[in-house]
Design brief:
membrane; 77% helix; Reticulon; Reticulon-like; mainly alpha
Length: 219
């Protein structure tokens, strides 16, 4: 049986476990306006795809067509008005410089790097049988995802996942002591059932071994 850390004996805070950067601040609602905007935007996107019947390709095409049409007409109108010196708005559309800063790219890359390494480490430990509790946890999560996936479609699943990511960590941080108490109880129960399981398996193994030896001797 692999060794593991009890929930209440975590060496790091939840903020540090989530990376300690902008992503962790958003997931734990340290920047309240950001997760609120993300939730509202994801709700609007879910409504568009589920209720209106749009697909991603058709929605992007229509939005981009409308946007570039407005900007193009605005720019042309401003040029014409400026040329004939009409007393109207003569400035082109205020377009900011469209680029992604290197800081944002590095932040996203570091977060993705930590997530991929964590997933690979979990898979490695499970494949080598180093952590039994980790195997049970991953199995339960995959089983729940399989059930949820069979009950809903992909956009709804993405929306539910996003809501879960933006609410569960914040709620856990707020009620950490109470949740850790019940997690410790569940951890103790799991260890008890694991010992019973190992004892039963060991007994069956001995019985099978003796049976095989008796059959071998008789033959």
């Amino acid at each position: 049986m692999g060794s593991s850390i009890r929930p209440s004996e975590r060496p790091k805070s939840l903020h540090e476990l989530l990376g300690g950067g902008v992503v962790a601040d958003v997931m734990l609602w340290r920047r309240r306006n950001v997760p609120i905007k993300i939730l509202l935007g994801s709700l609007a996107a879910w409504w568009v795809f589920e209720v209106s019947g749009y697909t991603v390709l058709s929605l992007l095409s229509n939005v981009l067509l409308l946007l570039i049409s407005i900007l193009f007409v605005w720019a042309k109108a401003a040029w014409i008005l400026n040329r004939y010196h009409l007393m109207l708005v003569q400035t082109p559309p205020p377009m900011p410089v469209m680029r992604i800063s290197e800081e944002v790219i590095n932040e996203v890359a570091l977060h993705m790097h930590s997530i991929v390494n964590m997933v690979l480490s979990i898979f490695h430990n499970i494949a080598l049988g180093k952590d039994t509790e980790l195997f049970y946890g991953v199995a339960v999560y995959l089983w729940l995802i399989s059930i949820i996936g069979s009950l809903t479609d992909f956009p709804t699943l993405c929306y539910i996942s996003l809501v879960t990511v933006l609410t569960v960590p914040a709620l856990y941080e707020k009620y950490e002591d109470c949740i850790d108490k019940y997690l410790d109880l569940a951890y103790t129960e799991l260890l008890m059932y694991e010992r019973v399981y190992e004892r039963v398996c060991f007994q069956w193994y001995n019985k099978a071994k003796r049976l095989i030896m008796e059959i071998t001797k008789e033959s």
